[in-house]
Amino acid sequence: MMSLHADWSYIEQEFECGLRDRFLMPVRSFDNAKSVTPFILEAGGRRTALFVHVEHGNASAAMLPPTIGQVFYRPYFTFEPTLHGPVYATLSDAICNLAQGERALQIDAKLPMTVATDLARTFTVSHEEVFDAGPVTLRQVSAAATAEMLAAWRPSAGRAAQRLLTRSPVRDRITPYLDVPEQDRLAALDRLLSAEGIDALVLTTRLNIQEVAGVPMRAKRAPLAAFYIPGGSAWVVEAGTGGSGKTFSSSRAAFTDICATGRVACEMDDIGFGLFASLGLDARETVAADILLRRWRDHNTLPDLAFYIIATRASARAMESALEFAGNAIDTGRAVTEMDAYKVYFDTLHAFVLEVAPELRVGKTLTNFHSGARTIFPANATAAPLSAEANMLKLDTGCLLFDPQGVLLGCSDIARTLALSDAGRELYALFQRGVRDTLIPACKVGARGDAIHAAGVEAIWGAASRPVGNPLFVDLPDPIAGYDRDVGHLLGKNNLAHLTFTSRTQDALSEGMIACCEYQWPIAGHAIAYEDTCLVTPSGGLNLTSDES
User: Fold this and answer.
1) Residue 371: inside a domain
2) SS3 state of residue 391
3) Which residues partner with 417 through β-bridges?
4) Which of 65, 426, 476, 509 has its CA 20 to 30 A from that of 216?
């Protein structure tokens, strides 16, 4: 029998490194991280780490024990898809290749239900023994208190954001949106739940527990789960007894007390089989709430606009300082590494937030910081040297803003590149123009993701902009189909959104959404990227990141 391990503590023990420090997917998003972080498969006397393909650069640099093999699945878009060895379409395909005909697969209690359900279509799945959490305490929370907690720092952040916009050419168009009052956020959630016939919501990620049940995302103690019943009623479930609240013999008994019957939705990309079974959800009609919750958050960003402005400006300042440092070092022949430039980025990020919003705290999320010569895949900074032979230095990073209690307030995701060749600089300038002059203006109310993708592709491959004789440019016969990746996405206190700008996305934008517009160009020792963030309005996107026209 094969065994698939998903428990982060166990994987970190076997990898001999921290997942959040070494890899992208554990920090890229908060609501599906457990579904896309590395797994370990034991099969045929071998142990193999299973990575999504985007982790190729990080996996190469992680120096895992040599007794653990590496296999990749879910291909990441590059212009050289066969250059880095085999990659499987799905996790199931990867396991099938390693299984040598075996079909019995035991999964651990932490494997998210989305993954477990998918694997059960191919394998005969069994589960490790599941232990109930024992007595739990159920505490009802006030919707008004949660709303007050989330809004507490908006006035001071609004003043800081206005100061940061002083030189913005669209300042006068952005400023009125800083004063838009928040609508009833839970009423919006109720409408989504009602449309799906959902009677109860089970939340397990710290982001969504914060947003619905008012527990700060970086609170010292994480709840076991939270429950929500349409109408504004939320409960927090704590393992053990003590404090205020009602004690139950098990988490199942607690959930049954507030919702004995009806259709349940939960975060299938996060909840492990063990908790799923302990709550009795395996005996209930249970559906996924992941996309629904992303949609809810993505539509509710406008009240936090000031935090997004501070975050994107902080990221831009930190990137500019790091790239200036790296460029000067390379020009003068000074020996520096990616980590040297990263320290400049890190120090500047924290100094910027301390200056403009000293009452807030800044944290890191995805931090792709690498030269093209080392890898064309997104990767964390290492001690790799920076010189003209590095080809370029790409920074595709974001930051998180928290209040002193650990409440997540906003986030960012932008990209910049230091190109070290004429060909690289020409493409970088093309991508910068494409983002500022085409993609951001295309982010208007009612615009569909596929239309934005088509406009972005035309800005690069159209006859008027196509670079002539550039060795890094790829002349695709069908650019819309060939550039098979997004040119942007929304932010909803999370990098993973319900709407991305791809050729297959038919969802449309709404006023007040926060959108990131980008190009990524991984090819031949280069990974060139440019990305800005904008506010969606009826007349088009308003650039929140840059003051340049």
Assistant:
1) yes
2) coil
3) 394
4) 509
Say yes or no: 348 and 449 in one domain: yes
- Residue 73 predicted with pLDDT over 90: yes
Nearest Cα neighbor of 305 from 176, 403, 212 is 176
Is the residue at 527 inside a domain?
yes
Q: Fill in the amino acid letter for 445.
A: V
Q: Mean pLDDT of all residues in the chain?
A: 96
Number of domains in the chain: 3
Q: Round to whole Å and give the CA distance between 204 and 266.
A: 8
Asked whether 520 and 485 are in contact (CB, 8 A), the reply is yes
Secondary structure E strands in 160-209: 200-203
- For a pLDDT cut of 70, what percent of the chain falls above it? 100
Each as own residue / partner, the long-range contacts of residues 498-503 (CB below 8 Å, 24 or more positions apart, any chain) are 498/291, 498/294, 498/295, 498/298, 499/295, 499/298, 499/449, 500/449, 501/439, 501/449, 501/450, 501/452, 501/453, 501/456, 502/449, 502/450, 502/453, 503/450, 503/453, 503/454
Residue-wise pLDDT for 111-167, tens only, equals 999 999 999 999 999 999 877 778 999 999 999 999 999 999 999 999 999 999 999
pLDDT tens digits along 400-443: 999 999 999 999 999 999 999 999 999 999 999 999 999 999 99
Tell whether 153 and 110 lie within a shared domain: no
